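Section 5.1 Outputs to date
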Amino acid sequence: MPPELHGGERDFSLQFLERLEAELGASKYQQWFAQKVRVLRTDSELTLACGSSYLVGWLQKQFRAVVRRIVDELQPGLTVLWTHDDGLTASAPSIDSEAKAPLSVARTTRDVEAAASSRPVPGRRLRDLASFVPGRSNLLAWSGVQQILSGSGRLLFLYSGVGNGKTHLLEGIAQQLRREDSRKQVLSLSAEAFSNYFTQALDARTTASFRQRFRNIDVLVMDDIDFFDGKKGIQEEFLNTLRRIESRGGQVIVAADRHPNLLTRTSSEILSRFTSGLVCRIDSPDPETRRQIVASLRESLEVPMNDEAVNYVAARFQDNVRELEGAMNTLQNWASVTKRLITVGVAKEALGRLERDCLKIVKLADVEQAVCQTFGLTLDDLRSDKRTRAASQPRMLAMYLARRLTGTAYSEIGQFFGGRNHSTVVSAERRVTELLRNQTRVRIGGGEWTVEELVESLERQILVG
């Protein structure tokens, strides 16, 4: 059972939305906010969650000032946060039906049971496998899903950058298994939710009930498993849960943003269990898959759009599926307001400003943070004069990525990474380019990776932020 919504929170959210509609006018409010933005308020923050990162960028650009003014009038000092929720659909309610009020420990077990049931969370439309578009970029993952559904697979580990379908597949697997056998206990949740439930059980001294519930399920489906990286106490509890499920012949399906061997602060036993199963990478969609995805979205969203515009959107947005979804949601809104057929010209007009507003500016500190996190180094280690491979290789990659993603001058990059001169950065760039050309492999966390795979993983982390 989701936590109850306090009347004060709901009243504030309703007041805010009513004031916003009055300020913007009914037409503009319906176009950009109604059923598209979830409002959630705590004592100190007001969060506006949107269905895509594109919509977040657009709304912030256009309406940040008016939102800030309304909030200041209703409750001065309240922090306004903008975020995206890839599970939010056009049919989602504007006021979050799952409040941010703390979960009471007495409800912990019921909450876990609700998560394992076949009933979707209110305001949340779960995705199914029928709407997933298989293609060359996700073929191995799709095959792994079929093995799980047939019962021949015991453990599946999916990994990719954001927005390429990991969560879609997890939700589809859970729904399909429940439909095929209603008696099967399928628990689907995020790693963070698992951590929260366990922490509450510790506080309430109800760990026995927690373990009874989690360790007697048939299938565990868990998203964002990389959340456990570096959290030893939670890792131990999760490992015990894994052991119990496996001993009972159950199935485990998890997803992360990187290969298990790149989870450098996760216990070796957990990693060995992950790598003993089927580990599947999902790449950014190839051109033909992107075209099929856009065509599928055109049909499901009922967007009046010609084939040339479909091809334009598929060619223009290449990084991930979420970009395509964001673009199509924008075009759907545009078509509903203008009553125009979406041609290539119209698509360029509607999406042009949105693309410019959502460009991420990468800083040298972003590169530094991602490299340190991946290699388990401190900032001092990366900037130090150490010439050991454990420090020099990450430093070389950091300089290469800094030049590639920021365009900063060689001399400035050198100064940032320990006061080095520009020739050191030029040398690092040439060396990494050579390693990429030769498809050189490096060892990280007990596993081997090509430099190309490592660079791609780091780039995803940096660009996601």
